[in-house]
Amino acid sequence: MNSNSIVYIENAGVRVGVLPHLGGTIVFLSKDNSPNMLKSDSALWNTALDISEHTDFFPIQGHTVWVGPQSQWWMQQSVHSSRKAEQALWPPDPYITLGAYTVLTQNDWSVSLTSQHSDVWGVTMEKEIAVNPDGSVFVQVTLINSSQDIVSWDIWHNTRMHGYSKAYVQARKEHVRVVPVRNDTCTDMPYGFVNDYFTYKPQQPDSTTSRASKAFIYPELPVMYAFTPTHMLSISFEKHIKNQIHPEQALVELYTSTEESQEHALLELEYHSAYSHIGPGDSIQAWEVWNIEEYAGEQTEQAHVSFIQSL
Questions:
Q1: How many CB atoms lie within 10 A of CB 114?
Q2: CATH number of the domain that 288 lies in?
Q3: pLDDT tens figures, 47-65
Q4: End-to-end CA distance of the chain, in Å?
């Protein structure tokens, strides 16, 4: 196997593609030969990156795993003093998100991988990805404190799809906080509720070059839904007590952005685990289960929500 090649696993018609050499990122998801449901540019998949603490963000997209809260990304390290001094919010740890992972086990339907230790987040990350006999996809992450100090993090699953995919989360209005991005070049994204399901209404910008908003949600049920033209992806996870979530984050976060070019539109479906203080050698875990359903109904919000409620 080429060291820069994709690893595919498959079961029950569902195919998942993982890049061990680029952060163990899941970049491909398909059912019955459908188009890729994840947003990821296959032209970038064979890229070889030279990783250091100075490596910038590389837009491989797909499903990645960060830690939270974001405000602490560069505050619990001593290898990049300027990012610590400026309390940088970007980029995420290059070693964990873009570095090469070692494949621990692999068969036709599952793969497990581990990162190297990172001095930026003070951790090693292990990923277990499996396509079950029923076609569901199990994604489990173990975050190991491989430093000599206590580190404080949550596990942050982030699944990226095309920005015009419609996403839905069942939540009370008082449990949703939408933070728009407003500046000289960006304005907010419209949103609404359909039968108690929060959803964005993605549209191209008009008077600015982009639109973007971030929704912080404590949902009624621990599941997010997103539609492609032919399928629906549901992402389930553990529902933590609200006060277990770091106050800067939320159990569910939905980020949306569009630009004049539709191909640059982005939707992020994010889940945060409980925030934990992790001693040296200790670990925390967080999982997601993905289910894909064929969808042949109308491309309307009401039809989408009716389909969700019918399951």
A1: 18
A2: 2.70.98.10
A3: 999 999 999 999 999 999 9
A4: 40
